[in-house]
UniProtKB/TrEMBL annotation, chain A:
Keyword Oxidoreductase: yes
Domain Aldehyde oxidase/xanthine dehydrogenase a/b hammerhead residue range list: 38-149
SUPFAM superfamilies to which the protein is assigned, alphabetical: CO dehydrogenase molybdoprotein N-domain-like (SSF54665), Molybdenum cofactor-binding domain (SSF56003)
Database matches in InterPro entries: Ald_Oxase/Xan_DH_a/b (IPR000674), Ald_Oxase/Xan_DH_a/b_sf (IPR036856), Ald_Oxase/xanthine_DH-like (IPR016208), AldOxase/xan_DH_MoCoBD1 (IPR008274), AldOxase/xan_DH_Mopterin-bd_sf (IPR037165)
Keyword line: Molybdenum, Oxidoreductase
Name this protein carries in UniProt: CO/xanthine dehydrogenase Mo-binding subunit
Cited PANTHER family: ALDEHYDE OXIDASE 1-RELATED, XANTHINE DEHYDROGENASE
Entry keyword annotation includes Oxidoreductase: yes
Automatic annotation (TrEMBL), chain C:
First-level EC class: oxidoreductase
Entry keyword annotation includes Metal-binding: yes
Species the sequence originates in: Streptosporangium lutulentum
Enzyme Commission number: 1.2.7.4
Source superkingdom: Bacteria
Protein name: Carbon-monoxide dehydrogenase small subunit
Amino acid sequence: MTYRLAPIDKRPFAAEREDDFTVIGSVVQRSDARGHVTGRTEFFEDVAPPGLLHLKMHRSARHHARIRGVDLTAALAVPGVTRILTHADIPNNLYTPLKLIGVGPDDEPILAVDKVRYLGEPICAVVAESEAAALEGAARVRVDYEDLPAVFDVEEALAEGAPLVNEYHGQNFFKYEGHHCRRIRFGDVEKAFGQADHVFEWRYESAPIEQAPTETTGCVVVPQADGRLRIHSDTQACFFTLDNTALILEVPFNRLRIVGGTVGGGFGGKVDVTVEPVACVAAMVTDRPVKFVYDRDEEMQVSSPRAAERIYIKDAVMDDGRIIGRKVTLYVDSGAYARHTPYGTTKAAAHLPGPYSIPNVWADCHCVFTNRTPSSAMRGFGVTIGDFALESQMDRVARALSMDPLRLRLLNAYRDGDLKAHRKVAEGTALVEVIQKTAELVGHELPEAYRRMSSTTREGL
Amino acid sequence: MIQAVHLPESPEAAAVHSARGGWIMGGGTVVMPLVNSGAAIRNELVSLRRAGLAGIEVRDGVARIGAAAPLSSVKEHPGLGFLRPALRTIASPTIRNLATVGGNLFVAQPYGDLAVCLLALGATCEITGPGGRREAPVADVLASGVAEGEFVTAVVAALPEPGTWYYHKAMRRRLNSASIVTVASVTHTADGVVTSTRTALGGVAPRPVRAVSAERLMRGRPLSPEVLTEAGQAARADTAPFDDAYASAWYRSRVLPVHLRRAFIG
Amino acid sequence: MPSQIVSLVVNGEPREFIARPGTTLLTILRESLGLTAAKRGCAQGSCGTCTVLVDDRPATACLVAVETVADHSVRTLEGVASDGNLDEVQSSFVDNFATQCGFCTAGMIMVAEALLDRDPDPSEEDVIEAISGNVCRCTGYRPIVIAILDAARRRREAGVEPGRPAEEAVSR
């Protein structure tokens, strides 16, 4: 075996930990590896029920438009096309991901009704005997659009007179308990700016990021003899998918059974429930198995990416490196619908101002609607881009002060017992020790005083 | 939807299907993605896999490469060693097992680096079609394609003399990535100055192009950083760069002189 | 042209099936022959998850119209292990944690099989080039490269000659 077993450093927090690790520090074979290397692991698309129908979506060719009419004549004439579903076929034509965690509103149709709000929004689902026929049918659907002005930038979307993206909300932002954004108010940042030796303000920005799993999003739905639907899916969230699908189908949860858990890469991109509800409706109306799987273009274009963010960070800094105030204005691009981005924006707010004890913090975190692909979950969504911005900010502050960036962080790192901006007392912080260990591993010299710092004491501050 | 896949066993038989509107397919690396996504523009495919066009002959300083020869065969051919580094920059070994020399002439930039090489080599295409057989410079085929019903059966090129072949491709990854700028050239020097040059560029226009403005500035002058930078700047006049997922038009144009220089003097 | 009967030699066994014009080798393997190890990741030759060996060379099965390889030999991951015994590449992938979600694994292993059959002692650079058409989104490639190099070492130590079918290697 050629992999490296990193030794565990058991020195920090020795008193707080029992050294009874049974897995950490040992080699544990993956339980699924044998299936993978023999090709016997069953992914959702590896099932081949007899009589399988194929579903392909006709999607919006516009970023923002009113639908004047949909003509299915040519599509229905394609040999092999058995059925075309529109919004009228979906029992409860609303995708309601946040309902399950008590957050509304229900702002996204399963199939577009009278308007499309992003390029690639699903309009109608063509069900056919073969994949080729379904593709041909989907290509022959004709939609008559009335173009509407579109908005693609978060700050433009919030400006006076911007086109309204989503009527469900009535404005281009998500309302948090009556507020126009998620806010943090702690101390008095303006006073801190007045007292600071330096004030630094920079802007950070990210594009949407597609998770790009090698297996695209999809499912195979098989009607069972007892009337239930068996859903083979590559969802990352089996029960979430089951609950949401049942809400959309308006059937009891026990009418559905999910077969899942094997995911060909997800990275957050397979959390939204985008294929199962329509495929289930198709299976119900035809009483035959139906497969709906994104092609690569769809995966890239319409599966929800990590949200684009724009972040302004303004810091009040003293000569010795202490940050005494931090003001953050964050815009998260939700795309045309909410999905998980209002939640992601809350996560972003919870993550500010980074793992540092700053006595004055002000943050406005806006969840903004634009005519872009709805964004959603991806690996630490809501915090990853913020971390990029916060840590870039720390490096730039250090550079501006001609200071070692690790010492700047050690000086400002939160310690156990500190009151965070959210008025929670920090515990189990360990940041100081992690920085010290990192410095040691990369050969970055720290003065004795910084090496003696601890997250459990205030030594050196 | 595809209604037929023909497997003619000779170029003449392929010509019959082609003349009836069949879609000529080499390795399928361009045609099959369109078939798979339902975007095929024709409903009959004509595979050249069995048409006897996969041979490679190198004799008396001239290479004759069948249009259906896979790129991996070109890469492995002992007589075409000078092309090996270029072939290594094209797609992956797996795709090179499928993709063909003929097909490479017809792919959209920023793909088709072998076509850039063939342009620099001044290759000739052998073409079969309803009107029989003809030959045409590869430059003409790259610029305006072939007539309806015609297809390329082989490319013929003189091997460059030792020390006269130059190739460099800038890409986002070290392997298996499309071109940002590709430079291929046959350039002769004597007493330290360029006596002749045929330099082709990829990645910077919808089709591979000759860098005629650069060639003009290089002739009679040494392959020095100054001359090559000047030539590279002049070469912008020969290009029509585009934006894509790999690079912006601005970037391609901006780095063109750098990569022209690197092609010759590293 | 109607559907036609096509035959292939798959993992050493002659197989016959009915194919609609333009059906890919991948679809035939998966849907007609029940060999689902090769996966559809992109259907455009970009991801390598459908890689199988056609005449012992890696090919993306999604780009091959099956009629064009009629009567040729095709090798898939299902044909690599024999009597339930993993070959060196497979066991090396397991031991070196070269799998995560498993979706790219079939393609990676088939590319490795072809590489090691032709070159028993590849350099790290050779391995990287060989898998350059195979996308892995989970492991970051490093464990895969290590696993292939380790598999080469195991084969050399076991005295497996290049080009020899893996089954013989396992039975030693």
